[in-house]
Amino acid sequence: MSENEVIFEARNLKKYFTVKLGFLTALRGRAIFVHAVDDVSFKIGKGEVFGLVGESGCGKTTTGRVAIRLLDPTDGKIFFEGKEITSFSHEEMRKLRRLMQIIFQDPYESLNPRMSVYDIVSEPVHVQELESDEDKITAMVKNSLLQMGLAPPEEFLYRFPHEISGGQRQRVAIARALVTSPGFLVADEPVSMLDASIRVEVSKLMLDLVKNQGISMLYITHDIALARYMCDKIAVMYLGEIVEQSPTETLLMEPLHPYTNALMLAVPVPDPTARRLKVVVKGEVASPIAPPPGCRFHPRCPKAQDICRVQKPEFREIEPGRFVACHFPEGK
Amino acid sequence: MTNVQEKLLEVNDLVMYYQTLRGPVKAVDRVSFDLKKGEALGLVGESGCGKTSAMLAILRLLPINARVINGEIVFEGRNLLKIPKKEFNENIRWKKISVIFQGAMNALHPMMPVGEQITEAIMLHEHLNKKEAFERAGKLLDLVGVGASRINRYAHELSGGMKQRCMIAMSLACSPDLVIADEPTTALDVIISAQVLKMIKDLQRKLNISVIVVTHDLSMVAEICEKIAIMYAGKIVENGDIKKVFSEPRHPYTQGLIGAFPSILGSKKILKSIPGSPPDLLDPPSGCRFHPRCPYALEVCRKEEPKFTKIEEDWVVACYLYR
What we know:
By secondary structure, chain A is an alpha/beta fold. Chain A has helices spanning 23-28, 60-67, 90-96, 117-127, 134-147, 154-157, 166-178, 196-212, 224-230, 248-253, 258-266, 306-310; strands spanning 6-18, 33-45, 49-53, 75-80, 83-84, 100-103, 184-188, 216-221, 233-238, 241-247, 316-319, 322-324. In chain A, the strands form two sheets. An eight-stranded mixed beta sheet of chain A has the order 6-7-8-3-9-10-12-11, with helices on both faces. In chain A, strands 2-1-4-5 form a four-stranded antiparallel beta sheet. Chain A is globular and about 70 Å long. In chain B, strand 1 (7-20) and strand 2 (23-36) form a beta hairpin. Classes of the chains: A alpha/beta, B alpha/beta.
């Protein structure tokens, strides 16, 4: 993996959603926003798997969707292969999407139940006008299915989503994303709906493919243990912001942010001799409509000081490759 | 823990099929296990392996197309399947055996304050007047960390973790001997889920109740249970002390499942996967149901069903490799 070649960059990305108000409240007050993504910046190198980890509602999925402009950012810039794509037109984006694909979480919802596997996987080829010869399209579809371990592909081509298992559905969804040979992939919890034994199989296949073809991936998940196996770097999100970013093993072994530390201590471990399950933070995530002032984690943070309540900590690089937004990082 | 040796629950050769238009679905097939007083058992398996069905059979909450074909469920010396329905409803379910349902977020009544719901459960089973029952509901909410001050809140006013705690308070309403927790932390975030699991464990110790945790998540069972039973395609394949099973899993499926769970501790090991997918229970494979996916399958595995082999005291495995 070459560090210098950045394929994707998000710079100060923001996405606010307006909250629907009653007629009278709207007349009286200003609009209210959900700060789903608030000033998020990161870079993904070529062939790199970049993990975005956080609890539900932290804005990781929204970040993923904004990244490939399925949602338009409220503010900030998005760069892909050196070009700024934030203001690309609909038509320009359509062409670009051959190179940027997404895998959704739920294969029960992301596949059209009335389309056969062949129709599903070949659709991007038609939309992108990559090929018009039916035989060649069939070959592309078969190849893509085969890559995802659906062998022999002929057996799956004319089946419908309800005729195949959940694991096979997600393989079809991944095959659809890969059929246009993209250079950048957003994977939004791609295996969280699958059973443990199948999860590993699909994850391994995905990782092999991505690594062999030099695809860069934004891997979104709530499962840090799984992220460890998939990602080169991990960024931890809390309430719309990235609080820490480090190479995977460094982040796990020496978390800098108290939130990362708390998250790590709360993850159950499949080893009965290593029981720990510590709860070091109290309470629950604050509302993204009115996030706390200063550091957003301060109401739950065991190390919070006065400064944390007033001043927002800067997201800074404290060692090469290690970023944190905290006034008092662990061990520093 | 006291009375460790006393058996609270014994399930023997339980067979339960769902009748469907395409034939019987063999959801629970000759399942046997037991549970001592004060013990926590983790019943682990992937979706559709019959773990929830087995629990519903114990609670006699099965849907109308389910048939218990064989077996007995002995609880405190009585076969639950033979107890008249009225008596079961009044004196067993909730009073002796209660349940924390899967997706508890949606199990609370949306138009009734949580305290009222707990009060209702208490009054149905115990001879208390409304005031006494309401007081007890408040104490229960204190016990689970919701606080009696929230007794008049509606479900939509509470967060997911709080709702789950209310469900736990409700399951403890009539001081049961056994609580069945069916995926107690699905849909909860990592930190909240750790809080809830820790609370379940603390309460289990404090009140000396037995718990059966039904889940697909091995890590969760590793954190809070003393015993583990692994289910595959309607059958228990291995059952034993959790530390022993985790350190030296015997059944190839147990080995596969443990190898498939990533950990954030220790050095990064290579994750193993189990090829194939679980069978259709309308037409399960002959012999050992795991044989089509098993790397060590022998000729006999295809033909005959393995019986439990005793590895040690309190540790059995259903596999021909250990005959």
